From TrEMBL:
This is Tetratricopeptide (TPR) repeat protein. Residues 56-335 form the DUF5107 domain. Pfam families: DUF5107. The lineage of its organism: Bacteria, Bacillati, Actinomycetota, Actinomycetes, Pseudonocardiales. It comes from Kutzneria viridogrisea. InterPro entries: DUF5107, TPR-like_helical_dom_sf.
Length: 637
């Protein structure tokens, strides 16, 4: 059988991501990966951790408009298939490798989530579990994870069809290119990755390929390392031995009680690979060319909170859930690397099945276990073959796509128009992709920012010195001043941001400038946000921030008045219900507060690592144990 490429649709139960949050993300990123023992770490590791941390996902907006109701939805996919493998790629959802089916053994090599259920784990909030996710940008799940990508067919070096995906990542202004290549009769899917820095300055770079696989009590994760950096959500990064530490074998995913990251310390002379093998010694192996050296095991843990997260992310998944094996540019996921101006980095990844002697794989001798996998991998796919495939791929890396399959955003095209740069070979950002989201900024390039109705949400703000300079020349309007403020906030000029938002309010009363001013003037936040909700009571995110500010200021009665302003559909939003329970408790209406938590209440966008549900339960029901459905703890506490 020759290799085929088919663009088709797959019907999946999907909870739609929904509309973007109209409020710019001005609050600090709620990132769980903070390291408090930097002074104990090697200098290079500590330096990489301290370098390049993202403060905001601007110019993106948050994706938090989803719920927990799913409907069968046709989803565009591309299927690459040969005699041995069938790979399914979700081109509309970050290019996720949704499935890798091994036709020889009749088994799925990945954790193929039967649903698409967003949850609050990504940099922009919405994220879903399963398959292989391609993470470019910064610590955390990529800004592109729930967005469509540009997609096209072209010809691989061996004449077979190849799938290319590409997009412009806007927090770092880097270009991502993914080429999926399945040679005839190959037992491995190859994914060539190229990241380009088109800027005239250094950029912090970050990449991790996150690979979900099913787990069972007999699943063991192996990598060519004797030590690993352990991060257990206690904000410490510690070097521990592999496989046994503190009396348990940390390479068996289901022996971890709590959620944990284990970053394997792979020696420089060792071929980089990672595998997850079941009790028969069979499973998925991932290897790569040398640039992608980091390898990681992630587990949710087997405590009640960890099991709750598994059920939350994959409500119809397998009984034992999943683990993740990951591959990255740095040795830990807490680091960013320095990518020089105009640099291009590329590498090749390979995904396929491996079978090793189960007695060796699960034996007590770790060197023998690793050696069994290395031997099996070497027989199936040598390192020289992987390196040769990368060399071959480079001959088509700049080839122009010959058949478009899907369209991503118009932001790359806008950036090329603004900067006057030429097209990047192989990844065209055509002016045909410019759309309504880019229209206001095209107008600004011509010297005028559209004004708009101050009660309508303004477009997402583009940031950076070039856009701020254009906004400063755009004339006096509430909208220009509003966007000036967001761009100044992003540049760290909080005083200038506040001045711009005050000017915007002088020109027109808008809830958007009021809200932004509340972020930089916390002493006025409750009053500003309450006034903003009066102007825009149908915006859930605005109501949530107003309720939180009023509760923090011990103004529960005014918070109750805000609740009365909200339309019925907004009152049902999870974070509004959570705030309502706290308001009722603060007003002494304890039974009513309990009923909010008892009556099927769900917080659809509860954040990874958040204990807000548990805290609210204990506040309102101090004498009752925390129900399992409210327990999302990461550490079993």
């Amino acid at each position: 059988m020759t290799t085929t490429l088919t663009a088709t649709e797959l019907v999946l139960p999907v909870a739609a991501v929904g509309a973007e949050n109209p409020l710019p993300p001005l609050h600090n990123l709620n990132e769980t990966h903070h390291v408090r023992n930097l002074d104990e770490l090697p200098a290079e590791l500590a330096d990489n951790i301290g370098y390049g941390r993202l403060g905001s996902v601007l110019p993106y907006r948050l994706q938090d408009g989803y719920g927990r109701e799913r409907a069968d939805t046709p989803t565009r996919v591309v299927v690459l298939e040969n005699s041995r493998l069938r790979a399914t790629v979700l081109v509309e959802l970050g290019g996720r490798l949704h499935s890798l089916w091994d036709k020889q053994t009749g088994r799925e090599l990945l954790f193929r989530n039967p649903v698409v259920q967003p949850a609050n784990l990504a940099l922009r909030n919405a994220w879903f579990a399963g398959g292989v996710e391609w993470n470019l940008g910064s610590t955390g799940h990529t800004t592109l994870t729930c967005d469509p990508m540009h997609a096209a067919e072209l010809t691989a070096p061996d004449g077979t069809p190849m799938l290319r995906l590409w997009e412009w990542e806007r927090t770092r202004n880097l270009v991502c290119q993914l080429d999926f290549w399945l040679p005839v009769d190959s037992a491995f899917l190859f994914v060539a990755v190229r990241v380009r820095n088109p800027n005239q300055h250094e950029v912090p770079a970050y990449w991790w390929s996150n690979i979900a696989v099913e787990q069972s009590p007999g699943t063991r994760v192996l990598a060519p390392a004797e030590q690993a950096w352990h991060f257990g959500y206690g904000q410490r990064l510690d070097l521990i031995p592999v496989p046994v530490h503190n009396g348990f074998d940390n390479t068996y995913s289901m022996r971890h009680a709590d959620a944990a990251d284990c970053f394997f310390e792979i020696p420089a002379e060792q071929r980089p690979w990672i595998a997850a093998l079941d009790e028969t010694g069979t499973g998925l192996v991932q290897t790569s060319t040398d640039r992608l050296r980091g390898r990681k095991l992630f587990v949710w843990g087997e405590n009640r909170g960890g099991r709750r997260w598994q059920d939350w992310l994959a409500p119809e998944g397998s009984g034992h859930g999943y683990l993740e094996i990951q591959a990255g540019l740095a040795r830990t996921q807490l680091e960013h690397l320095r990518m020089p101006a105009l640099a291009e980095w590329d590498w090749l990844e390979a995904y396929g099945a491996v079978q090793a002697d189960p007695a060796a794989v699960h034996g007590a001798d770790w060197a023998v276990a690793r050696g069994a996998v290395e031997s099996a991998l070497g027989s199936a796919l040598s390192q020289s073959t992987v390196d040769d495939r990368l060399t071959q791929w480079r001959t088509v890396a700049d080839a122009e796509p010959r058949r478009l399959i899907g369209t991503g955003s118009g932001w790359g095209a806008l950036e090329l128009v603004r900067s006057g740069r030429s097209q990047l070979p192989g990844t065209p950002f055509s002016v045909d992709t410019l759309g309504v989201q880019q229209d206001p900024w095209l107008a600004l390039l011509d010297g005028a920012m559209p004004v708009g109705d101050p009660l309508d949400p303004p477009p997402a703000t583009l940031v950076g010195p070039h856009w701020l300079a254009l906004l400063d020349k755009a004339g006096q309007s509430w909208s220009a001043a509003y966007h000036q403020g967001v761009a100044r906030w992003h540049a760290g000029d909080l005083r200038g941001a506040a001045q711009s938002w005050r000017r915007s309010l002088e020109l027109a009363a808008s809830p958007w400038a009021m809200r932004n001013l509340a972020v930089v003037e916390p002493e006025r936040a409750a009053d500003l946000l309450r006034q903003a909700v009066r102007l825009a009571p149908g915006v859930a995110a605005l109501a949530v921030e107003a309720l939180q500010a009023l509760l923090a200021a011990d103004r529960a009665q005014e918070a109750a008045q805000v609740l009365e302003l909200l339309p019925e559909d907004i009152r049902g939003v999870g974070r509004i219900r959570l705030a309502e329970a706290r308001v009722l408790h603060a007003l002494g209406e304890h039974e009513a507060a309990r009923s909010v938590l008892d009556n099927g209440f769900e917080l659809a966008d509860i954040r990874e690592g958040s204990t807000v549900l548990a805290q609210t339960w204990r506040l309102i029901n101090p004498d009752l144990p925390l129900p399992a459905h409210h327990d999302f703890s990461m550490t079993g506490e």
